[in-house]
Every structure is written in C-alpha cells, then in structure tokens.
Amino acid sequence: KRILKMPHHEILIEDLRKLGMTIGDDCWIFSDNLSAAEAYLVTIGDDVMIADNVSFAAHDASLSTYVEGASDLYGRTNLGSHCFIGMGTIVLPGVTIADNCIIGAGSVVTKSFLEPNSVIAGNPAKKICTVDELREKNKKYCLNTWNMSFEEKKKYLLANEDKFKKV
Predict the structure, then answer these.
(1) pTM of the prediction?
(2) Alpha carbon 134 to chain centroid distance?
(3) How many whole angstroms separate alpha carbon 117 and alpha carbon 139?
(4) Tens digits of residue pLDDT in 92-124
(5) Cα(102)–Cα(79) distance, rounded to whole angstroms?
(6) DSSP label at residue 58
C-alpha cells in the first residue's frame, strides 16, 4: 500500500538507498535502469536530477587483463548538490563533480570537475561553458510544461513551435 502512494522516482531512490547509495534531499531520478555497481561507493548531493540510462561505474575490471593478480580498480563517485546529469551519461570511478554542474547527454566523464557552475559534455567530457552562459544562450527557448497533463502539454507545445530551438 505504501509503494502505491509513492511517486515512481521516490521508489527508485529508496531502492538505491537500500543498496547503499547516499542520496541527498529533493533528488529526481528518471532512470528505471540507473546502473551503479557498488552503489555504496556513490554519493549524490541535494537537489540533483538524473535523466534516463545513466551509469555510475565505481569499478574498472579491465585491470584484470593487464595487471597480474588484480581484479578491479575502485573509486568513489561524488556528485555535488544542484546538478543535472543528462541522458546516457557514464561517470567513471573516482570522479567528483562540483555543485551546480550540468553534464550533457551522452557524456563520458573520465575525470573530476571541481569548478562549480560548469557545463560539462562530450567523450571524454570537458568543460564547455558556465551554467550562466548556457542560461543566457537558451533562455529565449525555455517553455514551462511542468504539471501539465499529456493533452495540455501537447496542445501547448504544438501552439508554440515558433519558440522551439532550432539546431
């Protein structure tokens, strides 16, 4: 009965916490398949949003092929508060991301980014701009569809296609 009353993202967060992942307050996880081997080595700050198909790799098993007697390389993954992790992102072992960072969809984060307010993207990921620069670049395209039903959102978007970003 309790589960039926919980929003889906809260169920996902509760399941990850049971595996040992540390997750702050007011987080949103939209991925049914968030991959996190050794979840207890992953720490997520407050107010973090994680899109679909994100992976946190807390270990690297490739060592077993080139270091005799080794099985894995381990590292803690730490995400700061107020971060957004885009769809399909892979975060490798030992990575720390500062507060208020955005990681673009499809990024492979191979190193730490300790400068707050950074936009990080690519493979391998690199800093591409600040959050303020991204905000300024895209604010004219922003639409607010939160709390709209499917039909309300569809009607609103189709009526406002002139405000869509064109790439």
Answers:
(1) 0.86
(2) 17
(3) 17
(4) 999 999 999 999 999 999 999 999 999 999 999
(5) 11
(6) -
